[in-house]
Amino acid sequence: MKHININKIDWFLDDYDMAESLRDIKASDTGRRGYRTFSFKGRQFFLKSFKEKGLSGFVRGRILPRGKKEYHMGKRLRSLSILTPEPIGYGIAKANSFVIQELIDGKSLLDAFGSEKNREILIKGLARLLVRLKMHKIRHNDLHIENIIVHRDDLYVIDLHKMTIKKTFSVEDELSNISHSLAMVYEEMTEAEKGIFFKEYGEKDIREKTEAAIRAMRTSWVENKKARAFDETSIIEKKGSTLYMKGIGVIGDGAYVETIKSDKKTEILRYTNHIRKLYRSKRRLKRAWQACVVLAYMGLSITPRVYFLNPPSFFSWGFIAMEDLKGRGEELDRFLDRHYPKMDSHERGAFIDSLANFFKGFLRMDIIHMDLKGCNIFVIKENGFLLLDLEDIAFKEINSDVLAKMLIQLNTTIPVMVRYTDRMRFFLKVTDGLNIDRRLLARMIARRSLEIEVVYEGVGGLKREGFMPMVNRYWLPEKAARR
Question: From CA 415, how far away is CA 373, in angstroms rounded?
């Protein structure tokens, strides 16, 4: 390995001739994390830089800078026949470190998983990669599938600076690799795909532990994002005391138009270019904003788009500004009251399937709504749905009790005219694949719903109805819930 100092950076290179490609690199040029590609002797390489910040960065920079560690880990992986971009050098500066690696022409496993029709090849490849990591006692510590590159059906591991090669490999180490690699896609995988993965991995008994580890990791991640919801981060920026979602632009300067709703807990005001929801309770305001932030990090658009948070003051309530949905659709209870009688069986089936798929999407991410009335589900004209009342969105594991409460509330806040076959179709699709006793859950929902008055907002105003005169028409026999 050749050593050369260029612009106050100590470079350690496998090929001295590469120094010419580094003449314009300065230690002060890079930010927190930077990338640059270049050609050398007919091959493509990229340079990744790390900003060594704070006391931990100062200590790390003098012991084992991340660029140097990534270089040596790359060499070690390749000696074990584990694919990773070839490292050919690293650099160390006062507050930065660098690594130079081969540029792999591929895409992340996450992107490949979303676009590849035959995902079985990728699933088996991931399982075999994890087996090799276990065999060599390698714990990556950040093995999400954006850190795995797919190139001609081969999987390359990247981002190695957190990786460790251990003397002993515990179950915790094994679960760390598996749960990190599956977390982003596990809820999208079919039961057949999950079976293929664990069969290829060779340890069927580890599935339950893996799923528990994924849930724990997700809970920890959510709590971390909630804790930082009021800080300036990659998606939030501060202007004075106001917190903005980045990339929104100029929103909030519109003129007041009307008051949509006002009660003891909240007020909803319409402005010319947004809606403001004011909260008397600081706790409810905090909960609503935290839900917005977590959903933004997840990349889920299941609520109205949120613009900014204006905190409470001594003289005024705090509020969240969000998009105005006027003219884009209507609440589910009113939509069904208006359109359901006119739908034929095909239209009803398509609508129910679409609504069930929307529910499955957020339920499988351990997202629930604690006030799931028909009026808190918005039906978009262009096809789609949104959840309203952000303060009632929570992140917790789905179980029979939680799901029963949600579905009973939904069941009793939509028109009784909705047929039992459509209700059961929705129930069966939403609960498909969940680890619950569907027969018991269906009986619980049916029994409790029959005891509650049905109240919803119809086209002509508030309506009150009851199931009792129509029991036989609106509930399937128990055997339907067994399917």
Answer: 12
Q: Domain boundaries in the chain?
A: 2-102, 107-227, 236-322, 329-481
Class at the top of the CATH hierarchy for domain 2-102: alpha beta
Q: Are 141 and 174 in contact (CB under 8 A)?
A: no
Dist CA 153 CA 366 (whole Å): 32
Query: What's the CATH code, domain 236-322?
Result: 3.30.200
DSSP assignment string, 302-327: -SPPEEEEE---SSS-EEEEE---TT
Which single residue is written with the structure tokens 């795995």? 148
Contact 309, 355 (CB under 8 A): no
| C-beta contacts of 292-297 below 8 A and 24+ residues apart | 292/229, 292/245, 292/320, 292/390, 293/225, 293/226, 293/228, 293/229, 293/235, 293/236, 294/222, 294/225, 294/226, 294/229, 294/395, 295/367, 295/393, 296/235, 296/245, 297/225, 297/235
Model confidence at 85: pLDDT above 80: yes
**Fold observed for domain 329-481:** Transferase(Phosphotransferase); domain 1 (1.10.510)
* Cα 175 to Cα 208: distance, rounded to the nearest angstrom: 11
Structure tokens at 255: 């003129």
Q: Does 340 score more than 90 pLDDT?
A: yes
What does the alpha-carbon distance between residue 72 and residue 23 come to, in Å, rounded to a whole number?
A: 23
Selection from 409, 414, 407 nearest residue 434 by Cα: 407
DSSP-based helix, strand, coil % in the chain, nearest 5: 45, 25, 35
Taking the CA atoms of residue 459, residue 460, residue 461 and residue 464 in that order, the dihedral angle to the nearest 10 degrees is: -90
The one-letter code for the residue type at 13 is L
Residues 6 or more apart whose Cβ sits within 8 Å of residue 315:
none
Residue 176 pLDDT greater than 80, yes or no: yes
Residue from 390, 369, 188 nearest 293 by CA: 390
Asked whether the predicted pLDDT for residue 302 surpasses 50, the reply is: yes
Look at 313 and 344; give whichever has higher pLDDT: 344
Same fold, 236-322 and 329-481: no
Residue 50 β-bridge partners: 33, 97
Q: What are 127's two structure tokens?
A: 């399982």
The per-residue pLDDT for 313 is: 87
pLDDT at position 323:
94
Count Cβ atoms below 10 Å from residue 311 Cβ, excluding itself: 17
> Architecture of domain 107-227 in CATH?
Orthogonal Bundle (1.10)
**Within 10 Å of residue 205's Cβ, how many Cβ atoms?**
7
Dihedrals φ, ψ of 21, to 5°? -80, -5
Residue 315 has a pLDDT of 83
